[in-house]
Design a protein that fits this description.
By secondary structure, the protein is α/β, with parallel strands linked by helices. Helices cover 29% and strands 24% of the residues. The protein folds into two domains: 201 residues, Quinone Oxidoreductase, Chain A, domain 1, CATH 3.90.180; 138 residues, Rossmann fold (3-Layer(aba) Sandwich).
Length: 345
């Protein structure tokens, strides 16, 4: 089968690899119907060292089950399913707490010997805890929106939930990428009436307004902080959803969060050190939260509104490519000519 591999910074290619096979009794084999490129895939695209063998890519996909192990009970051959980007058994103490990204018997796609989702097929470990059956046809127009449940919608929702967004909380979202836009959508879904989106790409911020943003701040750094403070009477917002992952975004979050507020980070951090002392978090009684989203914990909650068409998170896909064109998708997202690239098989 064909699969996307990264061999170094800026070097994504299609390789021919053996078809996946059942290895454990809890596995399923999924023929992929839709996949996509994630903003987090761009981090290694920028700085990965050269690798002769390459690394598999992709962790967002949906498809049709082709085979299952003998202990799989909740899905069957022929089911159309979506997979959470972190596979998990669904039964360990962390899964039962809704923290599948810390599953005692789980892991992540495109890592640890498990293939990536930018491929024609994939082995899914812990199928019962990872896969969710989708009650639509393989050619449904809802597939792009349903695909967002694999990561990007659930990640934006995690940011808002961890920040405890409600109707009474004001919100700043930092980042106009797909996750930031899903954070806007999620904050709106949770009742927020004031949502400030910090982003400077008009096509994206226009979509953010469609999703529920009430204000757009294009400025960055100190200028952007000053603008948000101006919009909020000098106080800042109760919650800040940081969907970028760079230190500058964290510093911006510190500048716009209201005393007693919450900063929720879901952009994969590209730094290890940042201020947490009296002059940053402590003195203002600010809570810092976030992390890799346990999206499996949210799929059942988010799925009905997607199926009904009440929300349309699939609007974040503005480029559709075939698997052979995956390098084009990476390049387009990297140079900001595409927001999020959908891979259609």
């Amino acid at each position: 089968m064909k699969a996307a591999f990264m061999y170094g910074a800026g070097d994504v290619r299609i390789a021919t690899v053996p078809d996946p096979e059942i290895r454990e009794s809890t596995d399923a084999i999924v023929r992929i119907v839709r996949a996509c490129v994630c903003g987090s895939d761009l981090h290694p695209y920028h700085d990965m060292g050269e690798s002769a063998e390459g690394v598999p890519m992709g962790h967002e996909f949906l498809g049709v089950i082709e085979d299952i192990g003998s202990d799989v009970r909740t899905v069957k051959k022929g089911d159309l399913v979506v997979a959470a980007f972190a596979w998990a058994d669904g039964t360990c103490e962390f899964c039962l707490d809704g923290l599948q990204t810390s599953c005692l018997h789980g892991g992540f796609f495109a890592a640890g010997g498990v293939g990536g989702g930018q491929a024609e097929a994939i082995r899914v470990p812990q199928a019962d805890g990872t896969l969710v059956v989708l009650p639509v046809a393989e050619d449904s127009e809802l597939l792009p929106s349903l695909l967002t449940l694999a990561d990007v919608y659930g990640t934006g929702y995690h940011a808002a939930k961890q920040a405890r967004v409600t109707a009474r909380t004001t919100v700043t979202v930092i980042g106009d990428g797909a996750v930031g836009l899903m954070a806007v959508l999620s904050a709106k879904r949770l009742g927020a009436e004031r949502i400030i989106l910090m982003g400077r790409h008009t096509a994206r911020t226009d979509l953010g307004i469609r999703f529920g943003a009430t204000d757009v701040v294009a400025e960055r750094g100190e200028e952007g902080i000053a603008k948000v403070l101006e919009l909020t009477g000098g106080y800042g917002t109760h919650t800040v959803l940081e969907a970028v992952g760079y230190r500058a975004a964290y510093d911006q979050a510190l500048g716009v969060v209201r005393p007693g507020g919450v900063i929720s980070r879901v952009g994969v951090p590209q730094y290890e050190e940042a201020p947490v002392g009296f002059g940053s978090l402590f003195g203002k009684n600010v809570t810092l939260t976030g992390g890799p989203a346990p999206v499996r914990a949210y799929i059942d909650e988010l799925l009905p509104d997607v199926l009904s068409g009440q929300v349309n998170p699939g609007l974040v896909f503005d480029q559709t490519i075939g698997l052979d064109e995956v390098a084009v998708g990476y390049a387009a997202m990297d140079d900001r000519t595409a927001l999020k690239s959908l891979i259609r098989f």
